[in-house]
Amino acid sequence: MENMLHLTPSRGLLPDEFIFSPDQLPPAISAAGVSLPVVDMSRSRDEVRRAILDAGKEFGFFMVVNHGVSEEAMRDMEAVCQEFFQLPAADKAHLFSEDPSKATRIFSGSIFETGGENYWRDCLRLACAFPVGDSSKDWPDKPQRLREVVEKFIVLTRGMGMEILRLLCEGMGLRPDYLEGDISGGDVVLHINHYPPCPNPDTTLGLPPHCDRNLLTLLLPSLVPGLEVAYNGDWIKVVPVPNSFVVNFGLQLEVVTNGMLKSIEHRVTTNMAVARTTVATCIMPAADCLIGPAEEFLSEDNPPLYRTLTFRDFKRTYNVVKLGSSLNLTTNLKNVQKEI
Ligand code: OGA
Ligand code: NI
Question: Is the CB of 157 under 6 A from ligand 1?
Fold first, then answer.
């Protein structure tokens, strides 16, 4: 529980490991009024397909509304996650672990290996198999309704994610079920992120600039702002839209489409006033799934940009690469692939 104790809002000064030099913290300038597109999924299938492909190609990120996850499921999830982080430390201590191979755990900071900096975040990680079976038996048993609420939320959110993948496939001229099977068939992993109020938000971050390593991420973003998305050398501040999810492409979608869909760096800033709790639902490949550029995306003019690796090997290697906003994604991936 050591690390968790750093995250007390009452601290006046941040310990050194939370403090970054100004060059690591380029300010968000909200790229001249640019904001993420909002896709209304209740429009015609044709319109939605076009809107998510256009938004995805331009930003790698977009918001969705009228997405089929009920408001009740979203509100229950937000409430239960906030209640979880408010539990007395003694009720959470047994879940604290720094071992990344543990399916259910609480940890602080980032999952990416960084240069010793620490990040102003606590995270509850959960995994859920599909079909769900008895996945929830390892999840926290407090608050009492957590397992039931989380299970319902994951099923609905994964359903929305699979629909977005089908729409993307159709938009790219592939069979709608092209991304079904092993490539989206691993456990669904939830990162329930909690960013407590921070005494000095100007010198630290909630999460470092990173790309998600999975296939697709669906973020329940909270109405408290904090997420920023890289765009043309600037950071776009994501302004939360009520009842929306923020959708972004993971690195596996970039690899399989040979770079047609890009996984874009994003980071999280903190604030002094209020805690922010978000839920990232990650659709993942199965560990043994071999992922490389699919032949539909290759031609003489489009040679493969990425090597083919199992998801397990990709994660193992990507984990040890030091991330930073100075490394662009392509260099980063190519470096990873040379190391293997
Ligand atoms: C993540 C992430 C963003 C947020 O969990 O990978 O980028 O706003 N979260 O919490
Ligand atoms: Ni992320």
Answer: no
